[in-house]
Amino acid sequence: MTPLESVTGPHPSGWEIATLGNLCEMKSSPKSLEADIAFHEGVPVISPAQIGNGQIDLLLAQRIPLDKAKRLERHRLRLNDIVMIRTGDRLEHALLTGDAAVQAPIAGGSCFRIRVISDDLLPEYLSWYLNRPAVQEWMGRRDSSGVVRHRRMAELASLPIPLPALPEQSRMAEIGRLLERKIRVHEEAADVARRLRDEVARSMLAGR
């Protein structure tokens, strides 16, 4: 296996390989963002707390008042943008869809935006590809060292991405979604079983 294939995996010879930096635009959050944050109304700000299981939950997100958000229009997120956690040990990201996309949030200081700008790449395929273990390992090796790990956009720009035909990208992403959903269902069931086990143990030890 070549060094390239150690990241992309074996793939048909007809597939092109491009880099993330050539296929996407990456942008960090505005530096003055934290000073404008309110707590109840306005434009949501995505932090790592809003990202989990490949989804974005804005219910408890902090917000920027609408009047202050006007000067940040170029930082507003769009449908199918990817938001990646920038700092810490969690190598997670989420694809912006549904109601979260309608609200056009802004990526907070601990996150950054990845926007597909190439017609040869589907956002949902990229999101699936970024979750592959070999790609996660590649990204982890390029984190800056220190007390807090830090993802560097300049390093991520060199990530190689294989480009099958768009219908094949769509098929791969859909299979990935279905399997992730099945994994979450099993994890939730296992969590319920663990809680039940602990409760039964406590009851039996109490003589009930």
UniProtKB/TrEMBL annotation:
Q: Highest taxon of the source?
A: Bacteria
**Domain Type I restriction modification DNA specificity, first and last residues per copy:** 12-183
- By what name is this protein known? Type I restriction modification DNA specificity domain-containing protein
Q: Is this entry keyworded Amino-acid biosynthesis?
A: no
SUPFAM superfamilies found in the cross-reference section: DNA methylase specificity domain
Which InterPro entries does the UniProt entry name for this protein? Restrct_endonuc_typeI_TRD, Restrct_endonuc_typeI_TRD_sf, Type-I_RS_S_subunit
The record's comment on protein family reads: Belongs to the type-I restriction system S methylase family.
Keywords from the named record: DNA-binding, Restriction system
Q: What is the lineage of its organism?
A: Bacteria, Bacillati, Actinomycetota, Actinomycetes, Kineosporiales
Entry annotated with the keyword DNA-binding:
yes
Organism of provenance: Kineosporia mesophila
- One Pfam family this sequence matches: Methylase_S
